[in-house]
Amino acid sequence: MVPNIGRYGRQYSVLVHHNRYSGREEYANVIGKDVFIVTILREPMALFESLAATLRHKGIHIDDIEDSRGKGHFLSYLAGMRVDYGRIGTNQMAFDLGLSVNVMNNSKRVIRFIRRLDAELDLVLIAELMDESLVLLKHALCWTTQDVVSFQQNARRSQYLPSRIPEKARRAILTANYVDVSLYNFFKIKLLDAIAAFGVDRMKEEVFALRKMRMSMYGDCVDSEDTADKVYPPQFVFRPDVVGYRIKNDTRAVPSATCRMLGANELLFTNMIRRRQLMDISAFYFARWGAGAATGLAASAPLGLALSLTLSVPWSSRMLLG
Protein backbone atom coordinates (compact mmCIF):
# COMPACT_ATOMS: atom_id res chain seq x y z
CA MET A 1 0.00 0.00 0.00
CA VAL A 2 2.99 2.33 0.49
CA PRO A 3 4.56 3.41 -2.83
CA ASN A 4 8.22 2.70 -3.49
CA ILE A 5 9.99 6.06 -3.51
CA GLY A 6 13.47 4.64 -3.96
CA ARG A 7 13.16 5.41 -7.67
CA TYR A 8 12.97 9.10 -6.72
CA GLY A 9 16.20 8.90 -4.78
CA ARG A 10 14.34 9.18 -1.49
CA GLN A 11 13.57 6.94 1.46
CA TYR A 12 11.01 6.95 4.25
CA SER A 13 12.09 7.83 7.74
CA VAL A 14 8.65 8.06 9.37
CA LEU A 15 5.24 6.56 8.61
CA VAL A 16 2.69 8.41 10.73
CA HIS A 17 -0.80 7.86 9.43
CA HIS A 18 -3.83 5.60 9.62
CA ASN A 19 -2.88 2.08 8.62
CA ARG A 20 -3.76 -1.43 9.71
CA TYR A 21 -0.86 -3.23 11.34
CA SER A 22 0.32 -6.20 9.32
CA GLY A 23 3.47 -7.33 11.12
CA ARG A 24 6.90 -5.97 11.90
CA GLU A 25 8.43 -7.32 8.71
CA GLU A 26 6.14 -5.20 6.52
CA TYR A 27 7.21 -2.01 8.28
CA ALA A 28 10.86 -3.03 8.18
CA ASN A 29 10.55 -3.34 4.40
CA VAL A 30 9.37 0.29 4.21
CA ILE A 31 11.43 2.01 6.91
CA GLY A 32 14.38 -0.31 7.50
CA LYS A 33 15.37 -3.19 9.74
CA ASP A 34 15.87 -0.91 12.74
CA VAL A 35 12.28 0.39 12.54
CA PHE A 36 10.80 1.57 15.86
CA ILE A 37 7.08 0.75 15.97
CA VAL A 38 4.70 2.72 18.19
CA THR A 39 0.94 2.63 18.60
CA ILE A 40 -1.65 4.20 20.91
CA LEU A 41 -4.38 2.42 22.85
CA ARG A 42 -7.39 4.03 24.46
CA GLU A 43 -9.79 3.07 27.24
CA PRO A 44 -12.47 0.98 25.45
CA MET A 45 -15.51 2.94 26.70
CA ALA A 46 -13.91 6.22 25.64
CA LEU A 47 -13.16 4.66 22.26
CA PHE A 48 -16.78 3.55 21.87
CA GLU A 49 -17.98 7.08 22.55
CA SER A 50 -15.52 8.45 20.00
CA LEU A 51 -16.56 5.94 17.33
CA ALA A 52 -20.22 6.72 18.03
CA ALA A 53 -19.61 10.45 17.55
CA THR A 54 -17.79 9.82 14.27
CA LEU A 55 -20.41 7.45 12.86
CA ARG A 56 -23.24 9.77 13.86
CA HIS A 57 -22.12 12.10 11.07
CA LYS A 58 -22.69 9.24 8.62
CA GLY A 59 -26.18 8.47 9.87
CA ILE A 60 -25.08 5.40 11.83
CA HIS A 61 -26.16 5.48 15.47
CA ILE A 62 -24.36 2.75 17.38
CA ASP A 63 -25.14 4.70 20.56
CA ASP A 64 -28.94 4.60 20.06
CA ILE A 65 -29.20 2.68 23.33
CA GLU A 66 -32.66 3.98 24.20
CA ASP A 67 -33.68 5.24 20.77
CA SER A 68 -37.46 4.95 20.41
CA ARG A 69 -37.06 5.07 16.62
CA GLY A 70 -35.66 1.55 16.84
CA LYS A 71 -32.85 1.90 14.32
CA GLY A 72 -31.19 -1.10 15.89
CA HIS A 73 -27.63 0.09 15.27
CA PHE A 74 -26.62 -0.45 18.90
CA LEU A 75 -27.80 -4.07 18.96
CA SER A 76 -26.20 -4.68 15.56
CA TYR A 77 -22.96 -3.24 16.90
CA LEU A 78 -23.05 -5.54 19.92
CA ALA A 79 -23.71 -8.47 17.59
CA GLY A 80 -20.46 -7.74 15.76
CA MET A 81 -21.71 -6.02 12.61
CA ARG A 82 -18.98 -3.86 11.08
CA VAL A 83 -19.88 -0.65 9.26
CA ASP A 84 -18.14 1.93 7.07
CA TYR A 85 -17.01 -0.70 4.54
CA GLY A 86 -16.13 -3.14 7.31
CA ARG A 87 -13.63 -0.81 8.91
CA ILE A 88 -15.46 0.04 12.15
CA GLY A 89 -17.01 -2.24 14.75
CA THR A 90 -16.37 -4.00 18.03
CA ASN A 91 -12.80 -4.61 19.22
CA GLN A 92 -11.67 -1.78 16.99
CA MET A 93 -8.16 -1.53 18.40
CA ALA A 94 -7.52 -5.25 17.97
CA PHE A 95 -8.86 -5.05 14.42
CA ASP A 96 -6.61 -2.09 13.59
CA LEU A 97 -3.65 -4.00 15.01
CA GLY A 98 -4.29 -6.89 12.64
CA LEU A 99 -6.55 -9.38 14.42
CA SER A 100 -9.01 -11.08 12.07
CA VAL A 101 -12.69 -10.79 12.99
CA ASN A 102 -12.97 -14.54 12.42
CA VAL A 103 -10.87 -15.37 15.49
CA MET A 104 -11.99 -12.69 17.95
CA ASN A 105 -14.07 -15.25 19.85
CA ASN A 106 -11.14 -17.66 20.12
CA SER A 107 -9.47 -16.92 23.46
CA LYS A 108 -6.31 -18.87 22.62
CA ARG A 109 -5.84 -16.93 19.38
CA VAL A 110 -6.44 -13.67 21.24
CA ILE A 111 -3.76 -14.53 23.81
CA ARG A 112 -1.28 -15.38 21.03
CA PHE A 113 -2.20 -12.14 19.29
CA ILE A 114 -1.44 -10.03 22.38
CA ARG A 115 1.83 -11.88 22.97
CA ARG A 116 2.87 -11.29 19.36
CA LEU A 117 2.16 -7.57 19.65
CA ASP A 118 4.13 -7.45 22.88
CA ALA A 119 7.10 -8.97 21.06
CA GLU A 120 6.85 -6.81 17.93
CA LEU A 121 5.84 -3.35 19.16
CA ASP A 122 8.59 -1.22 20.67
CA LEU A 123 6.30 1.04 22.68
CA VAL A 124 2.54 1.18 23.27
CA LEU A 125 1.30 4.60 24.35
CA ILE A 126 -1.83 4.91 26.48
CA ALA A 127 -4.14 7.84 25.68
CA GLU A 128 -5.16 8.32 29.31
CA LEU A 129 -1.45 8.55 30.23
CA MET A 130 -0.37 10.40 27.13
CA ASP A 131 2.14 12.77 28.68
CA GLU A 132 3.86 9.95 30.54
CA SER A 133 3.84 7.92 27.32
CA LEU A 134 5.43 10.79 25.40
CA VAL A 135 8.19 11.13 27.99
CA LEU A 136 9.03 7.44 27.54
CA LEU A 137 8.91 7.88 23.76
CA LYS A 138 11.25 10.87 24.01
CA HIS A 139 13.86 8.86 25.86
CA ALA A 140 13.45 5.78 23.66
CA LEU A 141 14.21 7.85 20.54
CA CYS A 142 16.71 10.26 22.13
CA TRP A 143 14.47 13.23 21.34
CA THR A 144 14.04 16.52 23.17
CA THR A 145 11.01 17.69 25.12
CA GLN A 146 10.06 20.04 22.28
CA ASP A 147 10.02 17.08 19.88
CA VAL A 148 7.08 15.56 21.77
CA VAL A 149 5.02 18.70 22.30
CA SER A 150 1.59 18.38 20.71
CA PHE A 151 -1.77 20.09 20.47
CA GLN A 152 -4.67 17.68 20.87
CA GLN A 153 -6.38 16.90 17.58
CA ASN A 154 -9.99 15.81 16.96
CA ALA A 155 -11.12 16.87 20.42
CA ARG A 156 -14.90 17.29 20.42
CA ARG A 157 -16.16 20.65 21.64
CA SER A 158 -19.26 19.02 23.13
CA GLN A 159 -18.64 15.74 24.90
CA TYR A 160 -21.13 12.90 25.36
CA LEU A 161 -19.34 11.37 28.31
CA PRO A 162 -19.14 7.57 28.59
CA SER A 163 -20.29 7.89 32.23
CA ARG A 164 -23.74 8.90 30.95
CA ILE A 165 -24.20 5.53 29.28
CA PRO A 166 -26.44 3.31 31.45
CA GLU A 167 -24.56 0.70 33.48
CA LYS A 168 -26.30 -2.21 31.76
CA ALA A 169 -25.29 -0.85 28.36
CA ARG A 170 -21.72 -0.24 29.59
CA ARG A 171 -21.41 -3.87 30.64
CA ALA A 172 -22.75 -5.01 27.28
CA ILE A 173 -20.31 -2.76 25.40
CA LEU A 174 -17.31 -3.95 27.41
CA THR A 175 -18.35 -7.59 27.01
CA ALA A 176 -18.66 -7.17 23.25
CA ASN A 177 -15.22 -5.52 23.22
CA TYR A 178 -13.51 -8.04 25.48
CA VAL A 179 -10.48 -8.33 23.17
CA ASP A 180 -9.89 -4.58 23.32
CA VAL A 181 -10.38 -4.65 27.10
CA SER A 182 -7.75 -7.38 27.42
CA LEU A 183 -5.41 -5.58 25.03
CA TYR A 184 -5.77 -2.25 26.83
CA ASN A 185 -5.35 -3.69 30.31
CA PHE A 186 -2.25 -5.67 29.33
CA PHE A 187 -0.42 -2.72 27.80
CA LYS A 188 -1.58 -0.23 30.43
CA ILE A 189 -0.05 -2.42 33.14
CA LYS A 190 3.11 -2.68 31.06
CA LEU A 191 3.25 1.11 30.70
CA LEU A 192 2.76 1.59 34.45
CA ASP A 193 5.64 -0.82 35.05
CA ALA A 194 7.78 1.21 32.64
CA ILE A 195 6.88 4.43 34.49
CA ALA A 196 7.85 2.82 37.80
CA ALA A 197 11.16 1.68 36.33
CA PHE A 198 11.75 5.17 34.93
CA GLY A 199 11.17 6.63 38.39
CA VAL A 200 7.91 8.13 39.62
CA ASP A 201 9.44 11.40 40.84
CA ARG A 202 11.57 11.72 37.72
CA MET A 203 8.47 11.14 35.59
CA LYS A 204 6.54 13.85 37.45
CA GLU A 205 9.34 16.33 36.77
CA GLU A 206 9.49 15.50 33.07
CA VAL A 207 5.70 15.58 32.65
CA PHE A 208 5.66 19.00 34.31
CA ALA A 209 8.38 20.22 31.93
CA LEU A 210 6.46 18.85 28.92
CA ARG A 211 3.20 20.51 29.95
CA LYS A 212 4.99 23.78 30.64
CA MET A 213 6.58 23.77 27.19
CA ARG A 214 3.25 22.84 25.57
CA MET A 215 1.54 25.79 27.26
CA SER A 216 4.34 28.10 26.18
CA MET A 217 4.22 26.95 22.55
CA TYR A 218 0.42 27.07 22.55
CA GLY A 219 0.53 30.66 23.77
CA ASP A 220 3.03 31.61 21.10
CA CYS A 221 1.28 29.78 18.25
CA VAL A 222 -2.48 29.86 18.81
CA ASP A 223 -4.58 32.96 18.31
CA SER A 224 -7.92 31.28 19.14
CA GLU A 225 -9.91 28.05 19.02
CA ASP A 226 -13.16 27.37 17.18
CA THR A 227 -14.96 24.52 15.48
CA ALA A 228 -13.00 22.98 12.63
CA ASP A 229 -15.45 24.15 9.96
CA LYS A 230 -14.75 27.76 10.96
CA VAL A 231 -10.97 27.37 10.98
CA TYR A 232 -9.94 25.08 8.12
CA PRO A 233 -10.82 25.13 4.40
CA PRO A 234 -13.88 22.95 3.64
CA GLN A 235 -11.86 20.30 1.80
CA PHE A 236 -9.87 19.68 4.98
CA VAL A 237 -12.83 19.30 7.36
CA PHE A 238 -13.90 15.73 8.09
CA ARG A 239 -15.91 16.55 11.22
CA PRO A 240 -17.12 20.10 11.87
CA ASP A 241 -17.70 19.60 15.61
CA VAL A 242 -14.07 19.16 16.66
CA VAL A 243 -11.68 21.85 17.83
CA GLY A 244 -9.64 23.78 15.29
CA TYR A 245 -6.73 26.13 15.96
CA ARG A 246 -6.29 29.57 14.42
CA ILE A 247 -2.56 30.17 14.18
CA LYS A 248 -1.12 33.63 14.80
CA ASN A 249 0.29 35.44 11.79
CA ASP A 250 3.29 36.59 13.79
CA THR A 251 5.01 33.99 15.97
CA ARG A 252 8.30 34.76 17.66
CA ALA A 253 9.63 32.07 19.98
CA VAL A 254 8.34 29.21 17.81
CA PRO A 255 8.98 29.09 14.03
CA SER A 256 5.80 29.75 12.06
CA ALA A 257 6.21 26.47 10.14
CA THR A 258 6.23 24.53 13.41
CA CYS A 259 3.12 26.38 14.59
CA ARG A 260 1.31 25.55 11.36
CA MET A 261 2.12 21.85 11.76
CA LEU A 262 1.07 21.85 15.41
CA GLY A 263 -2.27 23.46 14.56
CA ALA A 264 -3.06 21.48 11.40
CA ASN A 265 -5.68 18.75 11.53
CA GLU A 266 -5.07 15.36 9.89
CA LEU A 267 -6.29 16.22 6.39
CA LEU A 268 -4.49 19.55 6.27
CA PHE A 269 -1.30 18.03 7.66
CA THR A 270 -1.43 15.24 5.08
CA ASN A 271 -1.80 17.81 2.33
CA MET A 272 1.18 19.78 3.68
CA ILE A 273 3.38 16.68 3.65
CA ARG A 274 2.29 15.62 0.17
CA ARG A 275 3.13 19.06 -1.18
CA ARG A 276 6.57 18.85 0.43
CA GLN A 277 7.07 15.36 -0.98
CA LEU A 278 6.19 16.54 -4.48
CA MET A 279 8.67 19.39 -4.11
CA ASP A 280 11.41 16.95 -3.10
CA ILE A 281 10.62 14.58 -5.96
CA SER A 282 10.39 17.48 -8.41
CA ALA A 283 13.88 18.52 -7.33
CA PHE A 284 15.07 14.97 -8.03
CA TYR A 285 13.59 15.03 -11.55
CA PHE A 286 14.93 18.52 -12.20
CA ALA A 287 18.45 17.52 -11.19
CA ARG A 288 18.32 14.46 -13.44
CA TRP A 289 16.31 15.52 -16.49
CA GLY A 290 15.63 19.24 -16.31
CA ALA A 291 12.65 21.53 -15.84
CA GLY A 292 10.32 19.74 -18.28
CA ALA A 293 10.32 16.49 -16.34
CA ALA A 294 9.79 18.26 -13.02
CA THR A 295 6.85 20.25 -14.40
CA GLY A 296 5.07 17.09 -15.52
CA LEU A 297 5.49 15.39 -12.16
CA ALA A 298 2.27 16.73 -10.63
CA ALA A 299 0.22 14.90 -13.24
CA SER A 300 2.03 11.59 -12.87
CA ALA A 301 3.11 11.23 -9.23
CA PRO A 302 0.97 8.86 -7.13
CA LEU A 303 -1.38 10.62 -4.73
CA GLY A 304 -0.81 7.86 -2.21
CA LEU A 305 2.70 8.95 -1.32
CA ALA A 306 2.82 8.06 2.35
CA LEU A 307 4.08 10.00 5.32
CA SER A 308 6.89 10.77 5.35
CA LEU A 309 10.23 11.22 3.58
CA THR A 310 13.51 12.23 5.11
CA LEU A 311 11.66 15.46 5.80
CA SER A 312 12.06 16.24 9.48
CA VAL A 313 8.58 15.96 10.98
CA PRO A 314 8.76 16.07 14.78
CA TRP A 315 6.27 14.11 16.84
CA SER A 316 5.07 17.49 18.02
CA SER A 317 3.13 17.87 14.80
CA ARG A 318 0.80 14.97 15.45
CA MET A 319 -1.40 13.53 18.13
CA LEU A 320 -4.24 11.65 16.49
CA LEU A 321 -6.97 11.21 19.05
CA GLY A 322 -10.55 10.54 18.09
Mean of pLDDT: 83
Indicate the overall shape.
globular
Give me the count of strands: 4
Unreliable runs: 301-322
| Spatial ordering of strands, largest sheet | 1-2
Give a quick account of the main beta sheet: strands, pairing sense, barrel closure. 2 strands, parallel
Instruction: Report strand %.
Output: 5-15%
Number of helices: 14
GO molecular function: galactosylceramide sulfotransferase activity
Keywords: Glycoprotein, Golgi apparatus, Membrane, Signal-anchor, Transferase, Transmembrane, Transmembrane helix
GO biological process, one term: glycolipid biosynthetic process
GO cellular component, one term: Golgi membrane
Give an account of the 3D structure.
The protein is built from 14 helices and 4 strands. The protein has 322 residues and is mainly alpha-helical. The strands form 2 sheets. Strands 1-2 form a two-stranded parallel sheet. The chain has a two-stranded antiparallel ribbon with strand order 3-4. Helix 9 packs across helix 11 (256-263). The relative contact order is 0.15. It is found in: Golgi apparatus membrane. Belongs to the galactose-3-O-sulfotransferase family. It comes from Haemaphysalis longicornis. One of its GO terms (molecular function) is galactosylceramide sulfotransferase activity.
